[in-house]
Design a protein that fits this description.
Chain lengths: 432, 144
């Protein structure tokens, strides 16, 4: 079952719809947002130059810094009398970014979140335990408002107070939960420690998780512990918040609500648009938003797009779960590598931990990658060969999976320097 | 297992100061090294050592973050005359016992050779040596 007929449009109808929305959005930003008018003029383009969807590549990118430079409301395309909600991201590295929604934008948000909830099988009969943070962050209220519109009973539990959350989860009998994957694991651990029988005491059947990357192993673990379907929700405040894309019950890939948010994959270094299936940085253009329309927003998230039809019947394109951040990307002799990919390979090998450090250096003209990996505390041998075989095995797996030649160095448990409890993952000694 | 000496095998990285970190832990805790053998690869080394209190040494080293493992080895007394080492090695070779490594040290004027063989042929190796009247040192000889 789908929430909206736009989720299963034919390719030609979807494209026609996207193009008409794109033209509208381009007109809107050109005439109403001085920042964009200036950018268009610098590039020598006019709204009339956009005649096909492919023409989108002529348009300028928008970066997080652009939102900061126009703090707080400089990129809004409407006056404050039209704005009904404001959210803001934390400003840990500079000014915060501010986003605003009109009534119309709130409708769109509810629409796309309605699709997400429907992918998880929710109806007005369900109870949603919303353990996502409330406040300036778009997560908590994003789930909340949309669930209310669908007449789903929302329990605004937010984060923290784990013991009380467990009590409410049991006593209210919530059938669905939201939150970060790490909070879902934390709740499960606490539940076990407090003597709950997870599968008997709770009635959860589905969870909506996001805001953090999670490996497939972690997703399966959460799904198994709680006995629920794991629906991954992707979003970012600059675009709308949660609801840009989400997975359905049929696969781990996420359907992009592309009738509202137009996705492209680009090479983060050159800005060039990549083909379907190729990994690169996700760039999103809002097609229907009014308060803060955004052209080609550089999300910094690395993924790829597929248009292979999904068994659920939706025709919306799908993206992979985010593989990494473009800021973390290493280019080793022309091959793009993300620490998360390396971590994924390491996590499948016994006798080592996933505490590792990647050291990139130049050897002559070539890049040389060394990875120091902490041995598992349980692994120790009196035989030098066993260590060498383990080293060879890891190097082989990395070459197979990532096409990179790596020099693996096995190091003692807990020997890699930690920063606030986390190992420092990448040391790039190459002069940039 | 009168003859099984608990040798410590310790993983250390191949960089300056690693070995001294290891030896300092032992000396600070009053543990005496009876014999030591270093096996190295380009990146790391394995320290094999016999100490006077292996159980305590293992506990202390692990607390300090070292990866430690016990390996059973045996020691053989060998006179300082031509052919005495050959006699031991040949006796084992005749029975297809594979020697993994060996190292030696002297106590007064007696040489003691430490042997590591595959763990599942340990008992057999001892029997062969006894049959050949080769003097094996009991493990307790090393312990404080």
């Amino acid at each position: 079952m789908t929430f909206s007929k736009n989720e299963s449009l034919s390719s030609s109808n979807l494209k026609a719809l996207q193009l008409s929305y794109l033209k509208e959005t381009v007109l809107r930003v050109y005439h109403l947002v001085p920042f964009y008018k200036k950018k268009f003029e610098e590039l020598g383009i006019k709204p009339s130059d956009i005649n096909t969807l492919e023409d989108i590549s002529k348009l300028p990118f928008t970066k997080k810094q652009d939102l900061r430079d126009n703090y707080p409301f400089g990129l809004f395309s409407v006056d404050m009398d039209q704005i009904v909600r404001i959210h803001s991201s934390s400003g840990t590295t500079g000014k915060p970014t501010v986003v605003g929604y009109t009534e119309h934008d709130m409708d769109i948000w509810a629409e796309v979140m309605g699709r997400v909830f429907t992918m998880g099988g929710l109806t007005c009969k369900d109870l949603l335990h919303n353990a996502t943070g409330y406040g300036l962050f778009t997560g908590g209220l994003g789930f909340h408002s949309a669930a209310e519109r669908m007449k789903i009973a929302v329990i605004p539990s937010s984060t923290g107070f784990t013991s009380r959350q467990l009590l409410l989860l049991r006593d209210f009998g919530a059938t669905a939960i939201t939150g970060t994957p790490s909070f879902a694991l934390h709740l499960a651990e606490k539940a076990k420690a407090e003597g709950y029988d997870i599968k008997k005491d709770f009635k959860l059947k589905v969870g909506f998780f996001g805001a953090e990357p999670a490996s497939e192993g972690l997703k399966n673990e959460i799904a198994n512990i709680w006995g629920i379907d794991y629906i991954e929700v992707y979003g970012l405040s600059e675009i709308i918040g949660p609801g840009v894309a989400s997975s359905c019950k049929h696969s781990h890939l996420l359907h992009v609500n592309e009738d509202h948010f137009y996705p492209e994959i680009i090479d983060p270094k050159t800005g060039e648009v990549l083909e379907d299936g190729e990994r690169g940085e996700l760039v999103v253009t809002t097609l229907t938003k009014q308060g803060l329309p955004i052209i080609r927003y550089r999300t910094g998230d690395i993924t790829s797009i597929t248009r292979v039809p999904c068994r659920c019947g939706r025709t919306l394109c799908r993206i992979e779960s985010i593989v990494g951040r473009s800021d973390d990307m290493l280019v080793i002799n022309g091959v793009n590598v993300f620490p998360s990919q390396i971590e994924h390979v390491l996590s499948k090998i016994n006798d080592i931990t996933i505490n590792y450090q990647i050291i990139a250096q130049k050897k002559g003209y070539l890049d040389k990658l060394e990875i120091d990996i902490e041995l598992s505390e349980n692994f120790m041998s009196d035989d030098v060969n066993e260590f060498n075989q383990l080293k060879k095995k890891i190097e082989h797996e990395l070459l197979n999976a990532l096409y990179i030649n790596v020099d693996v160095k096995l190091v003692a448990p807990r020997s890699i320097q930690r920063s606030e409890g986390k190992a420092i993952r990448v040391i790039d000694k190459r002069a940039n | 297992m009168k003859y099984a000496i608990k040798q410590l095998s310790v993983f250390i990285e191949n960089k300056a100061g690693e070995l001294s970190d290891f030896t300092q832990v032992l000396s600070k805790n009053g543990i005496s090294i009876k014999s030591i053998l270093l096996a190295d690869s380009t990146d790391f080394g394995l320290v094999r050592t016999i100490v006077d209190n292996p159980e305590r040494a293992k506990a202390i080293l692990e607390e300090e973050g070292f990866s430690v493992r016990f390996t059973n080895v045996f020691g053989v007394k060998i006179e300082d005359v031509v052919g005495s080492f050959d006699k031991v090695v040949t006796a084992l070779a005749h029975e297809n016992i594979n020697i993994q490594y060996t190292y030696s040290f002297y106590e007064a004027n007696i040489g003691i050779f430490i042997f590591s063989v595959e763990q599942n042929s340990f008992e057999e190796a001892i029997k062969i040596l006894e049959k050949n009247s080769i003097e094996i040192v009991s493990a307790s000889h090393f312990y404080a």
